[in-house]
Amino acid sequence: MSLRGTTAIVGVADIHHPRGKAPVGERELVLQAILEACADAGISPRDIDGFTSYAGGDNSGPVLAADLGVRELRWSSMVWGGGGGGAAAAIGAAAAAVATGQAECVVAFRGMSQRETGRLGYAKYYFDNNYLPHGVATPAHVCALRTQRMLEHDGVPRSAMRNLVLAAYQHAQNNPGAAGYGKPLDEAGYDASPFIVEPFHLFDCSRENDGAVALIVVSAERARALGRPAAYVLGAAQGAPGGYSAQNENDEPYTSAGFADSSSGTGVASRLWAQARVKPAEVDVVQVYENFSGPAVASLIDHGLCPPGPAAAEVMTLENLTAPGGSLPVNTSGGNIADSFVNGMGLAVEAVRQIRGTSTNQVDRADTSLFIGGPMAPLVSSVLLGSEQTL
Amino acid sequence: MTAATTEILPTGPAPDDGDRPFWEGLREDRLLLPQCGACGQRRALGRAMCPGCWSFRTEWSPVTPAGTVHTWVRSARAFMSELDVPVPYVTVLVQLDDVPVRLLGILLGEDPRPAIGDRVTGVIQQPVNAEWPVLRWRFAGEGER
User: Fold this and answer.
1) Residue B77 touches chain A, beta carbons under 8 Å
2) Over 60: is that where the pLDDT of B2 sits?
3) Taking CB atoms and an 8 Å cutoff, what residues of chain A touch B13?
4) Hey, are the CB atoms on B10 and A133 less than 8 Å from each other?
5) Is some CB atom of chain B closer than 8 A to the CB atom of A66?
6) Distance, CA of A127 to chain centre
7) pLDDT band with cut points at 50, 70 and 90 for residue B1
8) Cis status, amide bond into A199, omega within 30 of 0
9) Between A and B, how many residue pairs show a Cβ–Cβ distance under 8 A?
């Protein structure tokens, strides 16, 4: 049994406000996003029968089902562990529910409101006394530790990180909704920005927004009946090598982002490619979760889209990373760094836009569109979307 | 930003007390780390069971606090107002010589500039605003010890 081509994303919504500035609470943001995604899909909110999310939160399936007045709740699942690493897994869980007939219309969503849940970037509560006495208190610290070794030991050049950021800013110049719109960034501006946690400059770090994102998953048959451009799920995978990023910095594939194969098994990326029957070189456009630029580079390496070590420089040029002409266009809305950040789920919406042909930085012909969820987390995930032609 | 703070630096055993011998060892100026009481496999702090043989028997034995820098970061901001060291500060992840275990710690010294592979020696320090001592590091051959 394979997930390939059995389900599709038919409606999306991406609502974001500056952090701390949403006019309504997180629950209302989520409901707004779901209604907007339903309108986009051409379905009634009453037709929703399932909910998936990740990284925690109180807006569970039963709560939202009551608010929306759905007829029947059939699926409510939270991806367990990994924070933003579970973003693509939430879409995978929705697709799994629909593909196996346990639900018919599942919304994968995430909402964030700083007034209610604080700053993710200062998520000190996550760390225990193996970390805090040493001043290691934020996601930036643990990602910086791995990134520094990727740069200094593995030999990945800083230009790989910098060009990922510059490409995001270049894309943001065409996206009026992006935080980086009208604020172009060049190499000198990047280099001059202060360090936050070395090796991360300010511009290597994700933004944070208030907002909500929703994606509606239905069967491929229903997607065709709706008659709107759909992004078919070609593959979805979640997990990590056993013990990855969960042993107080003692895990072996230390500079992996968590998607690579390891001595203990076949990794998320290999399982994704096998399921989708697509090779890395066949991917047309990539949205890669950048909590920080370095882990995003590691994600591209793990997925076989970029070689490891010094050779990464050959692929990670600004020209290659920029749409429409680049060979590996990434984060075409501006991504978490230059567009907006609602725990990374906005990237999934951009992955759908590319299949639909509605991105502000549309690649020439996007038949395969990859969304890679949060890297260097104890659980990571990715999902590959395809046009009808790929089925 | 100076190191003056009256807030309490988080230190000490986990809520389940599983790593209490490690912290009590620091109070006796010793680095005690866990190993499986059945098969002897070393493991990181924070795990009650041996992932090699699934025994819950745990022994704590002294380890020489010396090793090499596996990776490092320099924090340019006061992420923790309760930290008793000035900003910027460097945190190193140290691969121990004696056992296949890595430990974090602040690298002491004036504006230290570490590189991966540098030799470092552990220093057990009692911050004035912490209940328990903490393990920190110096470049090998520098300062006391």
Assistant:
1) yes
2) no
3) 129
4) yes
5) no
6) 23
7) very low
8) yes
9) 103
Q: Give percent helix, percent strand, percent coil of chain B, each to the nearest 5.
A: 5, 35, 60
Low-confidence stretches of chain A (pLDDT < 70) are 121-125
Tell me which residue in B12, B71, B72 faces A129 most closely, judged by beta carbons: B12
Q: What is the mean pLDDT of residues B34-43?
A: 96
8 A C-beta contact, residue A121 and residue A138: yes
What DSSP letter does each residue of A43-93 carry, written as one string? --GGG--EEEEES--S--HHHHHHHHT-S---EEEEE-SSGGGGHHHHHHH
Sketch the domain layout of chain A as residue ranges. Answer: 7-118+205-390
Residue type at position A370? L
Taking CA–CA distances from A155, the nearest residue in chain B reads B116
B65-145 topology per CATH:
OB fold (Dihydrolipoamide Acetyltransferase, E2P) (2.40.50)
Residue of B nearest to A129 (CA): B11
Partners of B51 on chain A (C-beta within 8 Å) are 243
Which sequence spans correspond to the domains of chain B? 13-62, 65-145
- The residue of A119, A124, A129, A141 whose CB has the most chain B CBs within 10 angstroms, and thus the best one to mutate to test that interface, is A129
Tell the burial category of A278 from Cβ atoms under 10 Å away from its Cβ (0-12, 13-18, 19+).
Answer: buried
Distance CA B145, CA B138 (A): 9
State the sign of the Cα–Cα–Cα–Cα dihedral A265, A270, A274, A276.
positive
Q: Do A250 and B101 touch (CB under 8 A)?
A: yes
Q: ipTM score here?
A: 0.95
Which residues does chain B have within 8 Å of residue A245's beta carbon, measured at their own beta carbons?
A: none
Alpha-helical runs (H) found in chain B: 20-27
Q: Taking residues B107-124, what's their average pLDDT?
A: 97
Superfamily for the A7-118+205-390 domain = Thiolase/Chalcone synthase (3.40.47.10)
Is the Cβ pair B104, A249 closer than 8 Å? Answer: yes
For chain A, say whether B87 makes contact (Cβ under 8 Å): no
Flag whether residue A263 sits within 8 Å of chain B, measured between CB atoms.
Answer: no
SS3 readout for A289-352: CCCEHHHHHHHHHHCCCCCCHHHHHHHCCHHHHCCCCCCCCECCCCHHHHHCCCCCCHHHHHHH
Amino acid A259: pLDDT: 98
Q: How big is chain A, counted in residues?
A: 391
Q: Is A196 close to B13, i.e. CB distance below 8 A?
A: no
Task: Name the minimum distance, in Å, from the CA of B68 to any CA of chain A.
Answer: 13
Beta strands in chain A (DSSP E): 7-18, 50-54, 75-79, 105-112, 195-198, 200-201, 209-219, 231-239, 285-288, 368-372, 380-386
Q: Output b/e per residue, A213-232; b: 16+ Cβ within 10 A.
A: bbbbbbbbebbeebeebbbb
Reference A346, options A184, A111, A31, A59; nearest CA is A111
- Answer whether the bond into residue B88 is a cis peptide, omega within 30°: yes
Cα A118 to the center of its chain, rounded Å: 20
Write phi, then psi, for A208 (nearest 5 degrees): -140, 140
Q: Which pLDDT tens digit goes with each residue over B54-88?
A: 999 999 999 999 999 999 999 999 989 899 999 99
